[in-house]
Design goal:
The complex is a heterodimer. By secondary structure, chain A is mainly α. Chain A is built from 12 helices and 2 strands; from the N terminus they run ααββαααααααααα. Chain B has 2 domains: about 120 residues, no CATH class; about 70 residues, no CATH class. The chains are: A mainly alpha, B mainly alpha.
């Protein structure tokens, strides 16, 4: 499931790199400040090497004659916790990308998201931990492992489909691609979930104390809720801009429809020097007129999606800049009031 | 298990290649990292129908490989391993895009063929670029640049430790697998029901090893600070290299050199 550079556009690669970088930064923040964080470094290093080795060990699936290997996201998270697990997987993916050409450098952000974030930051805290909170026993371990691995792989493989379709390199339609990817990864997820469950049950029998506790870090989560919100907003914005905009209706909006009904035109043409000057500014600055690339008259869906993402990013920057200016202005005004 | 041993020798080979000396090896890692990224972004940004514009980018590996003294064979082997995913995506386009793009003599070339060629060429160029970077820059230097770029130290430290312990863990897994194979003759891989115990044991050994590594690091004064030999920053000729290569990439991205030469010849 490692994506290659050739199947991505620079925009999708850039956006996913930003999303993954935010996820990694968030994980670093959650680990730092813990007085045991320096002990985690050799642990993450050695476990990263373990995952690398484990991914090279093929096991035969009974009855099919085929073989497979584990991904390791949920396994790592169940041993180290979600945040060290994400950092460890990111290290492994970077080494695989650089030394074994398994996944491209531009696609690194996509691979970290698909294989790391989906398992460690989505499936593990929202599925594995709640199930384990009900009681740490082998039955719950099996249930939690299978459900979270299947979910993580389904979300991850769906992300691959979205990223590839949004890049516009492959002509495979979205529906057909999804139908190809999802069932295959469902089966892979079931098998990997069972293997992960077997490994965790073994650890539970031999050395249960090394399993990550489902009740750890509760107070830290409250402190970090603002960051979670911002991260969620960033991801939703990118997805909305990139994906939902593809489904934006080409039909006229309410205003245009009313104008057509009243005056017969959907946009008014205006004369005059001021309007000409402002039109020139708009023509110059609008690198995506009508949400499509210039010269692309029928408005390709890639243009709309890119415009969606780019527009969202510009909006975020402008909003952040405006907020900063207001904050600075208020700070300047505040000392004058204190003197009264 | 063949893959485990190949992985160990692969890492060792790249590390030895990176320790050699050549004009490319002597360039500071930061400009090399930046130019590799610019190169990859430029290659990937080409639209699928533009093959002729992409072809001049072959100059980069064609010049850098002999200049750095990197042997072709191991690099090409790794390249082959990277092709299957792109091959499948490209084949999809080959089958779906049947309308004719142009004719070469009497042969009709479909848009699918053009798109397939584009995907394969882009894959080769981007993989070459990354492998040239790794074959001419020791990984510890790349890691040091990541720290200099303010990437969180905990990530950089765990990255370099993963790299260091790869061959150790791979060797451990290989000897465990040999022991298993001797007790399960005729089996291709590990039987699924044995995976729990196999991986579980490997995990327990890894945990114990990590504990010992941590104790050894503390005994040698580890204090969660990234120590490294002070390396001087890029010199003026490193930046001349970076700027001129980046300019060349930008020019080639927007000026189709193949068409220009083809026009002159025609």
């Amino acid at each position: 499931m490692h994506m290659a550079d050739a199947l991505l556009s620079p925009v999708v690669g850039g956006v996913m790199t930003a999303v993954s970088a935010a996820a990694i930064a968030y994980s670093v923040k959650m680990i730092s400040g813990d007085k045991l964080d320096e002990k985690k470094i050799p642990m993450m290093g050695v476990m990263g090497a373990f995952v690398f080795a484990a991914q090279m060990i093929n096991f035969t699936i009974p009855g099919t004659g085929s073989s497979g290997h584990i991904g390791g996201g949920i396994l790592l998270a169940a041993l180290l916790g979600p945040y060290p697990a994400l950092l460890t997987l990111s290290s492994v993916l970077l080494i695989q990308c650089l030394f074994f050409a398994d996944g491209g450098l531009l696609a690194y952000g996509c691979n970290v998201f698909n294989l790391g974030v989906c398992a460690c930051l989505l499936a593990y805290p929202f599925l594995y931990r709640p199930i384990m909170k009900r009681g740490i026993n082998k039955k719950n371990i099996v249930l939690a492992s299978v459900i979270s691995v299947v979910f993580g792989l389904q979300v991850g493989s769906f992300s691959v489909v979205l990223e590839t379709v949004a890049s516009g390199v492959t002509e495979l339609p979205f529906g057909a691609f999804a139908v190809l990817m999802q069932p295959v990864h469902l089966v892979i997820g079931l098998v990997e979930g069972l293997v992960t469950a077997a490994v965790l049950c073994f650890i539970y029998s031999a050395r249960p104390e090394i399993l990550d506790s489902p009740t750890e870090n509760v107070k830290v989560a409250q402190k970090a809720s603002m960051k979670k919100i911002l991260l969620t907003l960033l991801v939703i914005t990118a997805l909305t801009g990139g994906v939902l905009s593809l489904f934006a209706s080409p039909l006229p909006d309410g205003l245009e429809w009313s104008m057509e009904g009243v005056s017969g035109v959907s946009e008014l043409e205006r004369e005059g020097a001021v309007h000409d000057a402002t039109n020139n500014v708009v023509d110059f600055t609008a690198f995506m007129p009508d949400y499509a690339f210039t010269g692309d008259e029928d408005g390709s869906s890639l243009g709309t999606a890119t415009a969606g993402i780019a527009g969202s990013a510009i909006t975020l920057i402008l909003a952040g800049g405006a907020g900063l200016l207001i904050h600075m202005a208020r700070k300047k005004a505040a000392p004058a009031k204190q003197g009264v | 298990m063949a893959e485990l041993y190949h992985a160990i020798t692969g890492i060792d080979r790249m590390e030895r290649l990176a320790m050699e000396d050549s004009p490319v090896h002597r360039i500071h890692p930061m400009p090399k990292l930046i130019t590799t990224l610019i190169y990859i972004i430029a290659v990937v940004s080409f639209p699928p129908h533009n093959i002729s514009g992409l072809v001049p980018f072959v100059f980069y590996p064609a010049i850098m490989m002999p200049l750095s003294g990197t042997p072709y064979r191991p690099i090409l082997k790794m390249l082959l391993a990277a092709l299957p995913f792109s091959l499948m995506a490209g084949l999809g386009n080959l089958l779906l895009m049947r309308n004719t793009a142009f004719h070469i003599g009497s042969l009709a070339v479909s848009q699918g063929m053009v798109s397939f060629a584009s995907v394969m060429l882009k894959t080769m160029l981007t993989v070459f670029a990354v492998l040239i970077l790794i074959a001419t820059t020791p990984f510890i230097e790349i890691n040091r640049q990541l720290v200099a770029m303010r990437i969180p130290k905990i990530f950089c430290l765990s990255l370099i430790m993963t790299y260091r312990y790869l061959s150790v863990l791979l060797g451990e897994a290989a000897s465990m697998f040999t022991a298993y194979s001797m007790r399960a003759p005729g089996k291709k891989g590990i039987v699924m029901k044995d995976m729990g115990g196999f991986l579980g044991l490997l995990i327990l050994r890894s945990f114990d090893r990590a504990e010992r590594v941590y104790q050894a690091m503390k005994c040698r004064g580890f204090q969660n600070i990234y120590h490294g030999k002070k390396r001087e920053g890029p010199r003026w000729h490193d930046w001349v290299y970076a700027v001129s290569l980046s300019l060349a990439i930008l020019i080639l991205r927007f000026f189709n050199l193949s068409l220009f030469w083809g026009g002159l010849a025609g």
